[in-house]
Amino acid sequence: MKKIKLNNKGFMLVETLVVTVFVMTIFSIIYTNLFPIVAEYEKRETYDDIDGKYGIYWFKKIIQSNDVDFGNATTPGSISYNIANNKYHRFDCVTDIPYDVTTQKLCSNLVQKLQVAKRDSSGKETDAGNPCIYLTTFKLTDLKERAAAETGTGIFSGDLPGYISFLPEYRNTVSLNGAEYRLIVEYHRTKDDNNYYAYSTIEVKK
Amino acid sequence: MKLLKLNNKGLTAIEILVCFVLMTILVVSMYSTVTTYKNKQSIESDKDKIIAYKNLLTKEIQDDLVKKGLVDAKVVEKLNDEVSGTTVDKRYKVELLFRDGSKKVLEVNADYAKDFGTCSTADTTCLNDKDDVLTISYGTEGGTDYTTYPLPDLGYGYNGNTFSTNSSCSSKGDQGCKIYDFRINNIIINTDDSIFSFYVGFYHPDLGTRYGIDIVCPINYF
């Protein structure tokens, strides 16, 4: 009968250490990868919050009123032209509401009270800049491409590209309300010593 | 038959020691991480409650403003009452008139806990309901839809005898009145420029003044 030789040596200390180091490395990789997810979650808290949603509703009402003329796609500078050629139009309370002074004033007051961010053409935040109210197409495919290509420049210098990339493309969706346009607003909340940016979107049917 | 020879040596003292040291390092390093996340979880839970409160009230009020249409807004009571030079009570009341003729009131009440009066042997707890009272109410005045929404209770402490004018109170073990951790910090109500704006800023010890109810609505714009 052949003798049975049992190996009862167990693991060596070095082997145990190697495995421990290996497992710890895996854990540390998982841990470091978790941080960006937490940061992203904190950023997304300011996307489409309830104040932003109700605030943007009033700009939608103004844009849907007869006081705002979209013009046509062949007239440079008109809303329709800019959306067709630049993929977005930056809404302005004065130039886009040329004939009704009351609505013009209401729009400017809403910009101030709702704390809509103001930026100049280079993307720098300044009180003299235009409000960050952007009108674009219902489907965001084109705007997403432009935001991705121009991140860090002009209007895409803040966290706006981050918000745009967060939004769905709406490529295979048709608005239930028949909306052709989409409005995006950037807020800069400073009440009670706060200092953060918030973003909101709403569909617009003209 | 040859006897089986087993290795019964086991672990040496040094190996066990190394294992213990490693385990201790691991547990100590994990402890601070777990504690941090436990605190974070508690703050997140508070944040959830604050956001739920804010969303509930904002929706109640904004639903009327958007669907019914605001015709007029009048601030009928505005109180910023300084008590004992340290606490400022705030009470605001606004009447909102809608296009269908209905009228609702929106009230904010921040009555902060104060000294509970002259000290006596019986004064072992807060007297006369002088705990913090922090509420927002909305609805038809005297109607069934009038609801008072107290701020969520996210913990509290006691003011003890901080505001007592009688120094002998401290020896009687008075408990003091409740001071809630989550409080109303700031109230701004405006009806200028044909826009009704209503802001109630909250304060939380960990979240600061990050959250508040912020309502802006044009008057007579449908």
Unreliable runs of chain A? none
Rg of chain A, Å, rounded = 26 Å
Q: Estimate the mean pLDDT confidence of chain A.
A: 90
Report the major sheet of chain A. 4 strands, antiparallel
Number of structurally distinct domains of chain A = 2
How would a textbook summarize the main sheet of chain B? Answer: 5 strands, antiparallel
Structure summary, number of beta strands of chain A: 6
Structural class computed from helices and strand pairing of chain B:
alpha+beta
* Overall morphology of chain B: elongated
The most extensive interface, with participating residues per chain, is: A-B, 25 and 34 residues
Number of helices of chain B: 1
Question: How many domains of chain B?
Answer: 1
Helix content of chain A: 40-55%
Q: Helix count of chain A, per DSSP? A: 6
> Would you list the SSEs of chain B in sequence order as H and E?
HEEEEEEEEEE
What fraction of residues of chain B sit in β-strands? 25-35%
